[in-house]
Amino acid sequence: MQKPKYHVFVCSSSRINGQQKGYCYSKESVDVVQRFIEEIEGRELTDEVMITNTGCFGICNLGPIVVVYPEGVWYKEVTVDDVEEIVESHFENGEKVTRLEIV
Ligand code: FES
Question: Domain range spanning residue 48?
């Protein structure tokens, strides 16, 4: 596998003991992860964009949190309905979705 252009971390409230329990999980972040995977595969971006689910980023009240590298952009309150816009705008066109960005 080659190094991806974008590495996307989606908080699913994963814990070290394998449990998923927490704020982002309660806000359907697992569905957000799944939607990202479907969108990336559907647009044939799997060589460029890697999706990883993670544990807590420590700002649960703004969750679900999505962090994008290499820019280090943090998105807040991401829903399933926001995923298509992030993929198209950020990963395909290189433009951050400012309405969701934590600044
Ligand atoms: S559980 Fe997602 S940021 Fe804390």
Answer: 6-92
**Ligand 1 site, residue 100, Cβ cutoff 6 A:** no
Q: Does the beta carbon of 24 sit less than 6 angstroms from any atom of ligand 1? A: yes
pLDDT of residue 14: 83
In a domain, 35, yes or no: yes
Cα of 24 vs centre of ligand 1, distance in Å, is 5
State the pTM of this model: 0.94
13 lines ligand 1 (CB under 6 A): yes
Q: Is the preceding omega at residue 4 within 30 degrees of 0, hence cis?
A: no
Question: Residue 55 maps to which CATH number?
Answer: 3.40.30.10
Number of domains in the chain: 1
The pLDDT tens digits of the residues spanning 47-93 come to 999 999 999 999 999 999 999 999 999 999 999 999 999 999 999 99
Helices (H), the chain: 23-26, 29-42, 83-86
Residue 49 placed within a domain: yes
The verdict on the CB of residue 23 being under 6 Å from ligand 1 is: yes
